[in-house]
Amino acid sequence: MCFLWHQFVVLQRLFNRYLPAMHRLSNRTHEETLVFFDLETTGLDTSTCDIVQLSAISGNKIFNVYMLPRCTMTDGASRVTGLTTCADGLFLHGQSLDTIPVKEALKSFISFLKTINNPLLVGHNCRRFDSPILLRIMSEFHLLDEFLDVLSGFLDTLPLSREMFGLQKYSQPFLVQHFLQRSYVAHNATEDVRALQALYRVWQPSMELVNKHRFRL
């Protein structure tokens, strides 16, 4: 009887010792990781435009690719981004850029997301612009299911910022100037995601607001 009681006490101590760790591990696997992303495109028509630059950042992890679009860039898009195309390739302010095929770029992005625990893609105005474009082109290359399997969802910081702050404007350059007191090279996807991550760290929105403005298409 004493032997059985001793075994019970030992098992109970082990259970009490390792249960919190097991609980933390379970929670960790369900935690989401913010991944700030941005696209530069050939135009503003979400149903037809192509992606020329795709960037993302999560902490110190950075992803960036340029790709040669399948359609010509509009004059407005070139004027805003500095990106132009010709038969020779893609250029930024006249300087040639290294590009990879669109499908390869998308697969690389999925591989990047797979290195991150439950990635939640965060973008400014992404519900109306970036997300529909990205999902459409993923579908065109038969990568949509794989992409959505990796993804936890999306979060749009434009309506989030509108609900959090009473400001006169909510463009990302204005928000960076207002909260971070600096300017940056807007409409370069890499700089945009760095700036958005910095803004989010300053804002620290509540989980209630995050859940309100997250979505999954």
From TrEMBL:
Phylogenetic lineage: Eukaryota, Metazoa, Chordata, Craniata, Vertebrata
GO molecular function: double-stranded DNA 3'-5' DNA exonuclease activity; metal ion binding; nucleic acid binding
Any one cellular-component term (Gene Ontology): cytoplasm
Name of the molecule in the record: exodeoxyribonuclease III
Enzyme class: hydrolase
Record-listed E.C. numbers: 3.1.11.2
Catalysed reactions listed for this entry: Exonucleolytic cleavage in the 3'- to 5'-direction to yield nucleoside 5'-phosphates
Protein family per UniProt: Belongs to the exonuclease superfamily. TREX family.
Necessary cofactors: Mg(2+)
GO terms under biological process: DNA catabolic process
SUPFAM superfamilies, A to Z: Ribonuclease H-like
Keywords from the named record: Exonuclease, Hydrolase, Magnesium, Metal-binding, Nuclease
Domain Exonuclease: 33-209
Gene3D superfamilies per the UniProt record, alphabetical: Ribonuclease H-like superfamily/Ribonuclease H
Stored Pfam families: RNase_T
PANTHER family (alphabetical): EXODEOXYRIBONUCLEASE III (PTHR13058:SF22), THREE PRIME REPAIR EXONUCLEASE 1, 2 (PTHR13058)
TM helices/strands, residue ranges: none
Record has Membrane as a keyword: no
UniProt entry tagged with the keyword Lipid biosynthesis: no
